[in-house]
Design brief:
Length: 454
């Protein structure tokens, strides 16, 4: 698998607040602290003209912006700095139709209620693939005043990114000066890039590549990409389980939220695809086995609940799920307490496992959910820091395991099942860590981890 296909998705890391997360803070309007803004930012909307709410494109200093159910207002009821601001009504949108190219560490937006209108709720969304897919940054914001306040989103994105403001409900909303802080790694004082930051962060596993080149094309039903803040996966409709699930693990994801045990269908699986329910596993002899573990996402109730989406679940033999697989999960969490961050991909392949019935079972729920014959996991281990892909070297630790989905698996410790990433690529047809230079991949993917584990 050394003919590596580049597939660029960009990490989400958090620079402010504890625990680390994408967040925001409101303050009465004052000029932002000095930052390294992109050319043309802050966008003040002073150079544009749009007088109707119907969708249209406006050429502004920073580039072209799309406005849907939005216009550029200059009336006495529009709250603004200078002479103009954007006014959005209903479920309108303000969308960048261009990318900033070296990511961002912060977005600052000034906002207020138009005229005497009542509270308005809105959110900031981002796209790292030219507007094909969008994800929300932080949570919704409610504007409550008729004077400008600013919300600062602490969101670190690398590479190409664009933003969209979506009004959700309430009265009309004014938006003014939008600032986007460069995240190229060059500090404002010429101090150079920091690639050894020891602070744990929340990152996106797809920084390291998309193992199966999964897409969000609905017709690609057996390799359908689903991206969540907590993890990403490639769903296989014909198997009723994910091909793989990938996630980042660091102390930034850890907290005190309780395990919710709230298995639910995943509505991100397209309509018309098979969506497993918790009851489909009842009496099957197999556990509802998490790929991304519940304990890896306990910083909040929301994070934990997402791991119980059935798209993150596959049928595992109880002795695998509760003993051997769990032991590896627990070991991974000891690594992050020692100052490391992990990028993990996991899945199953083949058909035919042995659950509590002691018989080989190939599928459950009327053949809608396939039972894998084996489960695998590949893990890159790095000390906490930034610029993670570029920190991978030929000596970086990689743990790869391939375990049989049978009750007898617990007769050996998880370390017995260590193998090479190359071997898992050969068994699955996937291409792991495709964003790492090929020469480095050739070494780390051919190596069996031999670190002594207590």
């Amino acid at each position: 698998m050394k003919n590596k296909t580049l597939f660029s998705f960009i990490i989400i890391t958090v620079l402010l607040f504890a625990p680390c997360s994408i967040g925001f803070v409101n303050s009465a309007f004052a000029a932002p602290s000095p930052v390294v803004d992109y050319s043309g930012f802050p966008e003040t909307f002073e150079t544009g003209t749009k007088t109707a709410y119907s969708y249209g494109t406006v050429i502004l200093t920073t580039g072209n912006w799309g406005m849907d159910d939005a216009l550029i207002g200059d009336s006495e009821n529009d709250v603004k700095n200078g002479t103009k601001s954007v006014r959005i009504r209903n479920a309108g949108k303000l969308t960048m139709l261009f990318d900033v190219t070296t990511g961002t560490s912060k977005v600052i937006i000034q906002h207020a209620l138009f005229g005497t209108d009542t509270n308005a709720t809105w959110g900031l969304w981002y796209s790292i693939n030219g507007g094909s897919n969008w994800a929300q940054a932080g949570t919704n914001v409610t504007s409550t005043t008729h004077t400008l306040v600013q919300t600062s989103f602490a969101i670190s994105l690398f590479g190409n990114v664009r933003f969209e403001i979506r009004k959700i409900s309430g009265g009309r909303l004014n938006i003014d000066n939008i600032s986007i802080t460069d995240n190229s790694g060059i500090c404002c004082c010429g101090c150079g890039a920091d690639t050894t930051d020891a602070t744990a962060s929340r990152d996106n596993v797809l920084l390291f590549g998309n193992p199966s080149a999964a897409t969000t094309t609905a017709t690609d039903s057996n390799n359908y990409l689903i991206v969540k803040h907590q993890f990403s996966l490639a769903y296989n409709n014909s198997r009723g389980i994910p091909n793989w699930v990938g996630w980042h693990l660091s102390n930034a994801w850890k907290g005190t939220a309780e395990r919710c045990d709230c298995f639910t269908q995943d509505t991100q699986i397209p309509t018309g695809y098979y969506r497993a329910s918790s009851s489909h596993y009842t009496g099957s002899g197999f556990d509802r086995g998490h790929l991304c573990p519940s304990d890896d996402r306990d910083a909040s109730d929301t994070d934990n609940a997402v791991t119980f989406k059935m798209s993150n679940i596959a049928p595992q033999a109880p002795q695998l799920n509760q003993i051997t697989w769990l032991a590896l999960e627990n070991y991974c969490r000891t690594l992050i307490t020692a100052g490391n961050e992990l990028y993990i991909f996991s899945g199953g392949y083949g058909e035919g496992g042995v659950g509590s019935s002691d018989d080989t079972t190939y599928s459950i729920n009327d053949n809608k959910i396939k039972v894998p014959s084996r489960f695998w996991k590949v893990i890159i281990v790095l000390p906490n820091g930034s610029n993670d892909v570029n920190r991978v070297t030929t000596t970086t630790r990689v743990i790869a395991v391939d375990m049989p989905n049978v009750q007898a698996v617990s007769g050996m410790p998880w370390t017995f099942y260590r193998t090479t990433t190359d071997a898992i690529e050969a068994a699955t047809g996937y291409n792991f860590f495709s964003e790492v230079p090929i020469a480095t991949q050739a070494v780390i993917e051919a190596t069996v981890d031999t670190v002594t584990v207590p």
